[in-house]
Amino acid sequence: MDVMTPTGDALNKYLDLTSEQMKLTASNMANVDTPGYKTEGFNFEQQFLQQMNGSAEKDFGAGAEVQDVDGLVARPDGNNVSMDREGMQMAKSQLQFRMGVELLKQQFTNVMDAIHAEAK
Length: 120
Description:
60% helix
């Protein structure tokens, strides 16, 4: 018996994508002192839409379209990581993850309620 709903599947993809965003942000932060390092990122909304439409070539974790972030000011050593930007990105990703977990938790609660209603 499959207890996942289409909404539950979508939330799983959302959480996977949010998790990948946090890993990428952590990688950018870890390389703040690496000469020549360029900040990497991806378009979250576009990637999520591709996952939902099934138009993504692969699951996100198996080959995302990560690109250098344009428009950031580079220091003399060529590194363009901004800890302010990365801190904001991490906070945003954490909030997105929490929201996704709460929504997924509600999905499972609804499934359990339906199971218990059937048992009565």
